[in-house]
Batch of 2 targets.
Target 1
Amino acid sequence: MSTNTANPLAGEFELAMDGPLTAYWLAILRVLTGWWFFHSGVTKLLEGGLAYSYGPIYMQGMEGTALGPIPVWMGNNLAWLIAPGVPLFETLIGLAVMAGVLTRLAAFGGAFFMVLFWTGNAGFGHGLVNSDLMGLLLFVTVMILAAGRYYGLDAVIEKMQFVQQRPKLRYLLG
Amino acid sequence: MTHTKTAIDRAAMAVSGGLILLGVVVLGLIETLAGQPYGAAPLTNDAGEVVAMPLIDPNLRTGLVILGLVVLLLWGLYKLATPMAGGNTETAAVETTAD
């Protein structure tokens, strides 16, 4: 915490991760980002269960993107995984990010999804920076800042002896 | 809390940030200065006919951004694979948020 007597607000508004506003806002950001994916996943589950057939079709149509033939190949060959995986992983990623459990790993999954959405939707009419890229940046931000440590369960999990003895787990937690 | 950055850390940040900024901002500025379409998609008239194409292929620009993110990912994997400098340097941040 800052002890800058010249600026009494420095301690409250500074960008240090232990600053009260930074931790508060990171937690808000994380929960809303998680809810976004959770809602998207759970509504797919409610409507169609684990048979989200649009997933493979969407990827089969991703021809001519910066990802080359990868998504089309996935759509053609991994439909067995994509159809149940989209609603399931969206739901799990959302839950994990909201609760702050395995936050970095979950946010990586969210970023992977958003790369596919950003390039696949290709809604670039108003430029490259659109809501899909913003979603991608949110997940990368949650991952880089280890947002699960702020009012998230990862703050508790990281204090467990199991994690203390394996500090590299914090690259997946946090 | 003092973190020292190695040459690899600095290179990863420079390359990753450079690629992302090149794809979005630098090429976006060139695209804008080149005239319509100011976005990164073809411009169509009311009949749906394409009347102008972007100067820079959006796949190139999205590819640069994705490459920048891949560099970040590889940097993270490198940090995961190499020994941690100074042990539990991040514990302090965890504890200070509890109060």
Target 2
Amino acid sequence: MKKPTVRLPDIEDDAAFTARLQPLASKILPAQPGPQEAKEDRLSGIPELHQSVTARQAVASRRDEIEAKRGPKKRYEYVLPVRVGDALADDARKNGISATICLLQVLRNAGYPVIQEDLLDLRLERARK
Amino acid sequence: MSSPLIALASTKGGAGKTTLAFLLATSISRRLGKLVACIDADPNATLDTVLRLYADPDILALRADAETLLQTIREAREQATLVLIDLEGSASQAMLYAIGKADLVLIPAQPSAFDIREANKTAAVVAQAADLVGREIPFRIVFTRTPVLRQRVAEHSREQFKRAGLPLLPVEIMERVAFREMTYSGRSPQATAPDSAAAANIDAFTSAVLDLVAP
């Protein structure tokens, strides 16, 4: 008879346990209609601000306010592998947004505190002026 | 130390999860003379239904869904010597929780390309869940409904798993009428025909499983 395998410690806290499995759930489980719709809304809502003339004007007129809300910036792109940066740039190009906005969207969807103003591309508005 | 937990999982329906859960529950409770808990987390509740046909006092039949599964596991582990979880035949939140908590995952597969493909997928889910919860989650593929007579397709199917490096339980569940009859009576062949080949098959299967998770 074989020696039984030794069982290792389990995660006792339900919240920690379910949170750890969440990335796998997102990957393999079929999307639920409700949350999925909400996610799509979050993904598509911001760039559209740049599509309407009125919205663009509103963004341009609020530039100072938006920059104040955003606060100081620190850049992390130096730590991104080139491969990841290239993939981001590709996705951004396909969606007609900048790589920075694309990265910020990813971070926001992952739950990081990215605010609405962070997703406005002020350079785009300046170029359109 | 809490009672060992065995999850019967496969992303494919009809592979034999409920049959294995029923056979293990009846056989282990009989062999150990102790309470075994069976959590039916399949919305169809087939295991729960068959267990209630012949209410064995040594088997605690419970039902759960993804919302209640973790609490049900805790309660079952407090009361029973061993806990079994039967799951629905598709990827589900309950499946992830059960795998994440399991001491052993049994992945049933019939000797067919469809079953092998889904068993491979389920094995990958187990490996990824183990990475995420940060512990080893042992698993075994269990061949079910294998033909009594030697057949080329069964040999070929075993070979597929060996090539994929997936561990097979050394005992297979053969295709037998007795396993179909028990779905009507709620009693295992060990109780109704203890000297039969089917009973011997279950006995060997139980030993192979208990070698991996001794309560």
